[in-house]
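G., the chain you wanted modeled:
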Amino acid sequence: MFIHFLLLALASATSGSAAAPLTAEQIVDRMVQADDQRLAAFAGYTGARHYHFENGSFGKRADVTVRVLCDPTGARTFDVVEESGSGFVRNKVIRRMIDAEREASEKGEHQQTRIIPGNYEFRLLGSGVVAGRPAYVLEITPRTNNKYLVRGRIWVDAEDFAIARVEGTPAKSISFWVRSVHIVQQYNRVGPLWLPVTNESQAKVRIFGSTELKIDYFDYVLNTQQARARAPANPQE
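Predicted structure as C-alpha cells:
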C-alpha cells in the first residue's frame, strides 16, 4: 500500500513539474530575445566561403573561394583567393552575388530581412531535429513581397532558440527569367553565435533550365575577447 501511494505521489510530482508546450508566439519571443542578445555580443569574425555553380543543360561549372571579413556592424568585405571554371559565371553570377551582399551589408539592411514579427507571420507546425538537436518547426509568411524575404519554414533550436535551418522560396520573383528558386540554408553554433554553414539553391531558369548553387561556409574565427565579455544570457532563464 505504501508503495502504491509513493508511486502515485511521484507520478503527480513528475506531471506537475513537466514544462508546458510552447506556443508559436512564445517560441518567436524567445527566438527574437536570443537573437537580440547575440547581436549585442557580436564583435565580428573572419571566415571563408566556397561557391560552386553548376548548370547541367549547358555544361557550365564554376568555383570561387573567398575570404570574408565581417566587422562588428555586420558590414562584410570579400577577397577572392581562388577561382576556376566558366569566366562568364564567375564574373556575371557569383561576383555579382558577392557585390550585392557587400552593398546590402554596408547599408545596414539586416533589420529589413531579419526573421522577426515585424517582417513575418509565424505558425507552429511541430517539432524536428537539425544536426542531432531538437528544434521547433514554424511556417513563415512574409508580410511584404520582398525578394530578400523567404516564404517557407524555419527550424528553431529548442535549447538556444536560434534559427538552425531555413527552407523556402523568395517572397517575390527575382526576375522574369527565373521561374522558381528553392533555398535551404543551415546554421550551426560557433562559440556564442549561430552562423551559416551551407546554402543550397536550385533555380529553374527560362532557356537555361535547372541551375544549382551551393555555398559552404568554414574557417570561422570570432573576435573572441569582445564576444566573451558580452556573451548572451540563456534566453530560457
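DSSP finds five helices and ten strands in the chain.

Shout if anything looks off.
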